[in-house]
Structure prediction request, 486 residues.
Amino acid sequence: MSSEERGPLETTLVEAPETDSMLYSLTPEGSSLVLVLVWSREEPERLGEVITLPRRARGKSFVIGRTAERGDDGSTPLMLSRLRPSERQVTGPFRASRVSRRQLALRVEDDDSIQIENVGRGHLRVNGHQLSKATVRAGDLIEAERRFILLCTHRPNSWPQHDAIVSSFPYGSTDTHGMVGESPALWELRERLEFVATRDGHVLIHGPSGSGKELVAHAVHGRSGRSEAGIVSRNAATIPETLVDAELFGNMKNYPNPGMPVRVGLLGEADGSSLFLDEIGELPHAMQAHLLRVLDSGEYQRLGEARTRRSDFRLIAATNRDPATLKHDFLARFTLRVAVTGLGSRREDIVLVARHLLRGISRSDAAMTERFFRGDEPRLSPELVYGLLWHPFTTHVRELNEILWRSLATSPGQYLQPPPGFQVRAPPRPVVERPYTDPNTLTRERVMTVLERCEGVKERAWRELGLRNRFQLNRLLKKFSDMTET
Prediction:
């Protein structure tokens, strides 16, 4: 099904349970609501761009669309921008011809919500439901149907400024470490990574499975003073318990059995470099205790040897378990720690990560490129975007990659659709639409009073009266004029 043939999304919505991670939250202290572009039919290269609201915006009116000019009703046009801790590049209004000059009207009522109304062509959808106007909060998806989708979320009012954070890579693309995202959570990770990488203590990286801990480990090594030496990597869960000492410390020749070759062990291999042990939480506590001395001093002994050796290594360990499950004195050796969050904590990055994964697939699959890409941009359906942004990921990027492959295999047209069995999960709280005023209940005196208060500006008057559009006001004025003439 193409985007043009798309039917009502309400028929595919499934309410998410209260325990899902996308539940609404109040605006964190020191942050403001913003709107992030997560889908655009005609301008997909602008994904991740942000619409921010001015300070002290409460009670003021704004408009989103193709216009950069203030409206007759005094509403201020809002521009898209590429927002980073170190810079803000204003990219201007929407440029797509399908988008009306004035597509959406906004009014800020409080710090945690925005009143939004459709004033342009097409329909407004909030969380997949067709509405004319609604109150939106962090976590809501606002769609100008067949045009664009915005995610309401948070941005800090002031970003931490650190010269070490490198932001020279293209907006929305992979950074020098291979990470993708422009969300506060990912920029905080980059900031933490820079701090940790330039210190020489042992590092513990913790976070859910599939969140990118291995990528972070290689980034820590790559930004460190040890980067010229290749990182030594091993999954601790694959080391048999009976061979842990031999794998880590090595063994002398003919020990423990005749004919056994000499092994330098992982610590010997990592001398002058970094040793990355993934899934360190799978290492038994007894084996964790064996590492305490070498973590403190670098000293160890190969199995079968009496002499002490020394390795100048840095341990970078990763676990998807709670760090508190590690042996307490082993955990204490990790003076530097990095928490990696899952996709649920940075939903505005999900489509950017999906685009990156699809581009990787396209480089080796010309048929997929020809069918589902326009230039360098994959064609995602709005339904798939809804599904991905509301999906309760458990294995995060790995799971996202698997969903995209299923979508590639089953989508019938040129737009990637949700694969069979993949339900679009809407937030549990229903969107409440403000009721419109019935024009037949408005008296001539009421209309004239509001018009006078709005200084004759009809764009302001019809909204204050609670009408659907300016045409209803014009019809009322014509009716009152005809009544006067008769």
Summary: Residues 167 and 363 are 25 Å apart (CA to CA). The longest helix spans residues 470-485. Residues 1-8, 15-25 have pLDDT under 50 and may be disordered. The chain has three domains: 3-160+346-426, 184-342, 439-485.
